[in-house]
Amino acid sequence: MPRLSSSLPSLTSLSSCLDSVEAIFESDAGMAGADDGEDFVRDGGRVGAIFLGGNHLGDKGVARIVDGLEDPCRKYFKLYLCDNRIGHQGASIISCSLKYNTTLMELSLGNNHIGDEGARHLASSLVVNDSLKMLNLENNNIGPAGITALATALEHDNNSLQCLVLSENPIGDEGALSILQCIGNSFSLDHLQRCNHSLLSVILKKVTQVKDTATLKKIQSYLKTNRLAVPSPISAAQRKIFLYVKENPNALLDYVSTLRRDDTEKEMYGCMALILALLGKQYDLSSTFVVLKHSPHLFSNDSDSEIPW
After folding, report:
1. How far is CA 101 from CA 46, 98, 283, in A?
2. Is the distance from CB of 199 to CB of 234 less than 8 angstroms?
3. In what order do the strands lie in the sheet with 134-136?
4. Distance separating alpha carbons of residues 89 and 248, to the nearest angstrom
């Protein structure tokens, strides 16, 4: 990946703040001088974290930081850039780096103004990044469009992120529904099996323009399911399907009926049999499930097939 600094103004034209940022990565003496622990945390002789909150770096400063992160001789695990006047261009620069970075685990961009466009840039990096565990986007003026982009990337293409902070953003009802779909897509039982089971926490304090608070409660319910199922995504999927079918009994009957009409879905029979076995152990469900549990012909045309219950 080409270094970004080549396309930026010379250091002499930047503020003294940017000069010091550049010095961080070009001078070992500069790193050794950070013993006060405010800007750096060392890990086994390597610089493990960078704390540069409240320095008004702007997008130009972000480019300098990213150049330093790409140094193959050093590994960085945490990057905190809160309150730095970072816009969507800075988010784009960080996104490009995340697509190649394999060590960064925590990224905090709270109290900036990346907006929907910046959120879309970061979403594109989440599609390929598999190391980031925590992403803080608090108070960044991210609306429904940006939230939807992030949720879509996390639902389909990311299994590593565990904590997402979206507090104080105008996510609206549409954004809240996108987050719910990401972790509990009830469009079909297939979608429930394939949605995100790795997110353990989505912080939504003081989000605005959300009228349907029931959606926020459902989000927390599905997140709790993810946490209870750690470290088994399969267990999370089964729990989510159980909760959904408990509220919508006909959904399972419709799904089984669909499988019987489509011979290409035979590989799903075993999974559904396990789900029915799970359902059959619950005493507060309709007797319909008991009938299904003792109807192995619904899952295989082979009368000698072994049903796992």
Report:
1. 16, 5, 49
2. no
3. 40-43, 46-51, 78-80, 106-108, 134-136, 163-165, 201-203
4. 45
Beta pairing partners, 135:
107, 164
Average pLDDT over residues 194-218: 95
Tokens of 185: 């897509």
Q: How far apart (Å, rounded) are the C-alpha atoms in residues 224 and 50?
A: 31
Stated as kind and residue range, the H or E segment containing 11 is none
* Whole-number Cα distances in Å, 139 to 56, 85, 225: 16, 12, 27
Length of the chain: 309
Which secondary-structure segment (H or E) carries 50? strand 46-51
pLDDT at residue 210, rounded to an integer: 95
What is the per-residue pLDDT across 108-119, written as a single tens digit (0 to 9) for each?
A: 999 999 999 999
DSSP β-bridge partners for residue 183: none
Report the candidate in 122, 99, 16, 104 with the shortest Cα–Cα distance to residue 60.
16
Question: Cα(194)–Cα(28) distance, rounded to whole angstroms?
Answer: 47
Rounded-to-10 torsion of CA 165, 167, 169, 173? 90
In whole angstroms, give the CA distance from residue 4 to residue 208: 36
For the CA atoms of the chain, what is the radius of gyration? 24
